[in-house]
Amino acid sequence: METLSAHDLTLGFGDSIIIDGLDIEIPKGKITVLIGQNGCGKSTLLRSLARLLKPKHGQIMLDGKEIAKLKTKDIAKKLAILPQGPVTPDGLTVYELVKQGRHPYREWMKQWSKQDEEAVQHALTSTNMIALADQSVDSLSGGQRQRAWIALTLAQQTEIILLDEPTTYLDMAHQVDVLDLLFELNEKEERTIVMVLHDLNLASRYADYIVALKDKKVFAHGKPEEIITSELVRTVFDMKCQIACDPIFGTPLCIPFGKGRCLFANEQKATS
């Protein structure tokens, strides 16, 4: 199983440093979620792990080899990334989109193979997109479109999948639908999944491992039940909250403080 890690990693654009001297080891065969405030470097870190952004300093290692020295096609056979808000060419069908996941395996003058077709069909089946294979991606709902893009990454047949905010712009039902799909892929096929999420409660529910970023470095990392505390939320997100236990899943449940309609307001006033 492939391994992915970063050592003394510094990232930025021009004179702006976003990640500074960061070390991270991605657990194999697990779901890792990156959390932190907007602008803390989550997406930047994810892009660098996929070699889409060259480090200013430090190394990223893929299966024991420095990723900067690997061929692009070799990386694409080990690691797939789904960026935030990918754009689909007009008129492209779901099947045509998912076929693009086989590009790393294509060679000049080589015909479409049985293995290529099996990989595409498996990806469509795993994401429940078989019935929509001939439809235009543009005609799909937000949740269906996201499934189509995930199917493309599955057709790439990599052990590691990186996803940048895969639930952005989706309603609650579709968020859970997409995360359930990723959870099943990890559980059944042991894919290593790394994703950026903003919802702490969903992150705690689906992640085996959480990495919290703060001040250009890893502030905390570990199992959700070990690191998601009111102190961490206050420090990382500058927000006061209460951490309870999710009554259904038993995972940390973040209840943020703030203004709003409080059913217990009168009781609180009476006891204050």
From TrEMBL:
It comes from the Bacteria. The keyword Nucleotide-binding applies. Keywords: ATP-binding, Cell membrane, Ion transport, Iron, Iron transport, Membrane, Nucleotide-binding, Transport. This is Siderophore transport system ATP-binding protein YusV. It comes from Lederbergia ruris. GO terms for molecular function: ATP binding. Residues 4-240 form the ABC transporter domain. It is found in: Cell membrane. CDD domains: ABC_Iron-Siderophores_B12_Hemin. It is a peripheral membrane protein. The gene is yusV. InterPro entries: AAA+_ATPase, ABC_transporter-like_ATP-bd, ABC_transporter-like_CS, P-loop_NTPase, Siderophore_ABC-ATPase. The lineage of its organism: Bacteria, Bacillati, Bacillota, Bacilli, Bacillales.
